[in-house]
Design a protein that fits this description.
Strand content: 5-15%
Number of strands: 8
Structural class: alpha/beta
Shape: rod-shaped
Largest sheet: 6 strands, parallel
Distance between the termini: 146 Å
Order of helices and strands: HHEHEHEHHEHEEHEHE
Amino acid sequence: MTAIVLCGLLALQMILISGCTAKRTAVETMLQELNSSLQSVQQQSVDASEASIQASQAEAASIQASQAEAASIQASQAEAASIQASQAEAASIQASQAEAASIQASQAEAASIQASQAEAASIQASQAEAASIQASQAEAASIQASQEQAAQGVTSQPPEGHEGPWVGGRTVYLTFDDGPSYLTPQVLDILDRYQIKATFFVTYTDKPEIVPYYSEIVRRGHTIGIHTASHEYEQIYSSMDAFVADFDKIYNYVRDLTGVSCQLYRFPGGSTTGLNLGIRDQIKAWLQQRGIVYHDWNVVNGDGATVTADEAYHNVVDNIVQRTHPIVLMHDGVKKETTVEALPRIIETLQSWGFTFAPLDPSVEPIHHGINW
């Protein structure tokens, strides 16, 4: 297009040079129009070139952007691959750690088993040693019992046809706590039947039908001693004043009824009950100052709880032979019918074994728990 316009311009210039004025004017006009068209064409060409350049630049930028995106994708892929590799390595480390922990756990379990086996072996050794010591102690006790029996004149020759143990000449002291009650006359009758004297540690009652039994105990030749007025442990042992008040109440009552100033005492619950711990030594000193002897026991028939007559019998006869100075605890208080039922069998068995019976008095060596029981 530009070449055509240029050719037209050259032609017009030739006409302009060779032509008339009118033609020249027309030619000039045409020439101007052609120049304008040429400029327009040139401008369009420039614009087209610039647009082409811009398009090329845009395309180049697009290519660069695509290349950058591709590079970014490759970087992301590389990073993902690196992360996967790290995760795999971490998983491998965790697996190794888990395996190590499993090994440690197995080792710990093995060590625990070995420790248990060692402890079991130590326990067995200790048990064997304890059994050996017990056997030695039993043998020593048997020897000592034989020596004590010999010292007390116990004969090794029972009567002809005798069956069971033989302790000829040993004395047993039967004692009854918590009376008198409606059962006391039955106990007194049984003792009379076998011509036996015993000891009664009494409590307080003012029931008209029971009161005469205090004097009946004394009248039949038995020893009467003080136990407690109320038998309320917490009240009795709450203070020395409370103890003295309880003691004096039953002591004066018995003296008024029987004329006997009692010289024997039995602690409610025994001398070593935890309930009297705070004033125990004061009580003992107070009793000693008044010339009163306290007695515990070393054989029981178990009627402090509920027992059958057969159980009461065996509790005594199965445990009395090993005692060289047996003091037997029983009860003639309310609801102790099984004691009454078992008493004749107990007496007959002990008599057949050579025991003699006697009541306690101030001259008899007392049994004190924790000291000589």
